[in-house]
Design goal:
Number of strands: 7
Helix content: 25-40%
Number of domains: 1
Low-confidence stretches: none
Distance between the termini: 24 Å
Radius of gyration: 19 Å
CATH topology: CBS-domain
Shape: elongated
Order of helices and strands: EEHEEHEHEEH
Strand content: 15-25%
Largest sheet: 4 strands, mixed
Number of helices: 4
Strand order of the largest sheet: 1-7-6-5
CATH architecture: Roll
CATH superfamily: CBS-domain
CATH class: Alpha Beta
Length: 149
């Protein structure tokens, strides 16, 4: 299966530039209700994912940092504990699934590393739930979950 089927294009994804400020990140993430967003460089390449935890660690570990002066901290100065690895648009579904197991979304890049969108875990689970439901209706029976390894 082609992972482009699940792709939410860049134009519909809230992203931040690595040169944006910490305050801009906090405000955008709060406004959209996101706990993590993709970070891009000036060329549009995916460079990582910024999480609320990254922002909180920076706030906790930086003396005299407050909301009022967060606009002095660039996102490039904020360490990221976890690196969400992207997949290429031509990746196999198994690559997508292995990353989705530990990430809320999987960044998707082209062959030049340019960010083209994300695949959310929600869409993947929804797709496989439909397949599962169709299989259940076809078999007409309940699955004994204890027998599944």
């Amino acid at each position: 299966m082609n992972i482009a089927f699940f792709l939410i294009p860049k134009k519909d994804v809230v992203c931040l530039n690595i040169g944006s400020t910490m305050r801009q990140a906090v405000e955008r993430m709060e406004y959209h209700g996101y706990s993590a967003v993709p970070l891009l460089d000036d060329a549009g390449r995916y460079v990582g994912t910024l999480t609320e935890g990254d922002l909180l660690r920076k706030l906790k570990n930086t003396l005299f940092l407050t909301f009022s002066n967060m606009d002095q901290i660039k996102l490039g100065e904020i360490g990221r504990i976890k690196q969400n690895e992207p997949v290429r648009i031509d990746a196999e579904i198994t690559d997508l699934l292995s990353r989705a197991a530990t990430q809320n979304f999987v960044p998707v890049v082209d062959d030049q590393g340019i960010f083209i969108g994300i695949v959310r875990r929600r869409e993947i689970l929804g797709y496989f739930n439909k397949i599962f439901q169709a299989g259940q209706e076809k078999e007409g029976s309940e699955t004994d979950w204890r027998k599944i390894p």
